Amino acid sequence: MIDRRTFVVGACAILAAPWTAAAQREGNVRRVGFLVVARNPGVEAAFPAGLADLGYQEGRDVTIEWRSADGRADRLDTLAAELVQSGVEVIVAGGPEARIAAMKATTTIPIVAVGGSDAVAEGWASSLAQPGRNVTGLTVTYPELITKKVELLGEMIPGLARIAVIQDPDGIPGPVRAAQTTAFQTAAHSLHVDIGVIEVRRPTDLSTAFRRAVDGRRQGVVASETAIVFTYRATMADLAMKSRLPLVGEWRPSAEAGFLMTYGADLGALLRRAAGHVDKILRGAKPGAIPIERPTKLELVINLKTAKTIGVTIPRPMLLRADHVIE
Q1: Which residues face 164 on adjacent strands?
Q2: Each residue's pLDDT tens digit, 189-205
Q3: Domains and CATH numbers, the chain
Q4: pTM of the predicted model as reported, rounded to 2 decimal places
């Protein structure tokens, strides 16, 4: 027969095992940097939640040093340097601009990149399986998404013939921009749609971009969600609704801000998975040996409130396929 006191002590030890293991593994409070162009607390909460799933309690086992450029990408280099000076053991970089700034700031501190980048084409990884440097992470750039977004617009707009693509060329690394240009051309040819690219480099360019789309008789807009677009997504949604133009993006927060539709990866899910990369690094793994991952699922989000505002009817089959419908 098991002694009651022995049973209680043993049960408590089992319940405490994850935290005990974390404490033994860490030995002290670990410091993780988190660098982004602009904060999105609702999405970013997934990162500490992912760490908690792995046994790290924020404030006890790990401290997260949050750094945001508040929409100003030109501040990222300074913020990345601050994180390096603060002594963080790993930097999570949200988006290609943050990843570039982090790589400028350090070649030794591990970096976990989360966001749209073609790691191999840009030259910061030898391969997805073996990155080889101090950077690993999760990439989400798929040129084929461009064709899919145009197809989705075509399902909503009978006779779709002319669309605009709004993008910030400074926020898209050269190799990725070249791949996207090819994808635009392929989509235009295969779907028989005229695609006009409108460039924006600063927030003041956004209203001009939508005016050009209207003047060019574009029937819809696809936004490349680089830093400026994501940061000012509510402004873009408002401009699109005033112009009565269907606006398609990539991230669910943009649909929540008023985009008609988004199609892409779940940012929150990516950040939860990034916590796994951080855990491996804190336990001694080299970032260059941790495979760069891609999303396991893409989600379609539709904003019915926006559809009603601009007078667009969403086909029922599309609504049934949607992962999330905002009403």
Answers
A1: 196, 221
A2: 888 899 999 999 889 99
A3: 23-141+267-297 (3.40.50.2300), 144-265+299-326 (3.40.50.2300)
A4: 0.83
